[in-house]
């Protein structure tokens, strides 16, 4: 099975980055023996421009592994260890991965937490707003300068219940 995704042309760099990361990590391991989920046209293109009623969009097709998504009842100690191992394998595969778009700004990147100071005014409760401001300001003043000097790498960082697929045809992980 596959899904066709349409993206605004402004996401071209993000799509290129994601596709390159998938190609880099999707190697046969003891847990995953599938091919890269990025499908290509007969000409070898992973992304093509498509004219839609809303304008030009970037189209790409992705496959996914058969199985079911993770549920809270799957969270046994053994399954959590297997999940941690799998996430570590993916991040290890990404250790040497480099891409021109790897350093892009992402709101959910903890390194960028100080940027949320601009959003503090949206916290309706005054007491909570001040606690959030103090925590974020301490991060900006104390943590961010030190963190910026540490080595970093691309990681997956999105192993959530909608992105974890279990293969029930094998013994449970």
Itemize the secondary structure elements and their pairings.
Blueprint: E1 2-8, H1 12-25, E2 48-52, E3 55-63, E4 68-69, H2 77-93, H3 126-147, E5 165-166
Antiparallel strand pairs: 1-3, 2-3, 4-5
List keywords for this structure.
single chain; alpha+beta; 14% strand; 173 residues; 3 helices
Description:
The chain is an alpha+beta fold and 173 residues long. Helices cover 31% and strands 14% of the residues. The chain has a three-stranded antiparallel β-sheet with strand order 1-3-2, with no helix packed on it. A two-stranded antiparallel sheet has the order 4-5. It is globular, with a radius of gyration of 20 Å. The model has no long low-confidence stretch (mean pLDDT 86).
Structure class: alpha+beta
What is the H/E order?
Answer: EHEEEHHE
Overall mean pLDDT score?
86
Oligomerization status of the protein chains: single chain
Sheet having the most strands: 3 strands, antiparallel
The tally of beta strands, per DSSP, is 5
Report helical residue fraction.
25-40%
As residue ranges, the low-confidence spans are: none
Task: Give a quick summary of the entry.
The chain has 173 residues and is α+β, with helices and mostly antiparallel strands. The chain is built from 3 helices and 5 strands, in the order E-H-E-E-E-H-H-E.
């Amino acid at each position: 099975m596959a899904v066709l995704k349409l993206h605004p042309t402004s996401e071209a760099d993000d799509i290129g980055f994601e596709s390159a990361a998938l190609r880099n990590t999707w190697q046969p391991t003891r847990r995953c023996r599938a091919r890269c989920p990025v499908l290509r046209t007969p000409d070898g293109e992973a992304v093509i421009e498509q004219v839609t009623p809303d304008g030009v969009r970037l189209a790409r097709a992705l496959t996914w592994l058969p199985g079911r998504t993770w549920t809270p009842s799957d969270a046994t100690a053994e399954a959590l260890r297997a999940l941690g191992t799998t996430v570590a394998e993916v991040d290890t595969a990404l250790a040497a991965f480099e891409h021109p778009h790897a350093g892009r700004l992402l709101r959910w990147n903890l390194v960028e937490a100080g940027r949320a100071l601009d959003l503090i005014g949206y916290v309706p409760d005054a007491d909570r707003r001040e606690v959030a401001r103090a925590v974020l300001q301490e991060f900006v003043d104390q943590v961010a300068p030190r963190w910026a000097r540490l080595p970093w790498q691309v990681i997956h960082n999105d192993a959530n219940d909608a992105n974890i697929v279990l293969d029930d045809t094998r013994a449970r992980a």
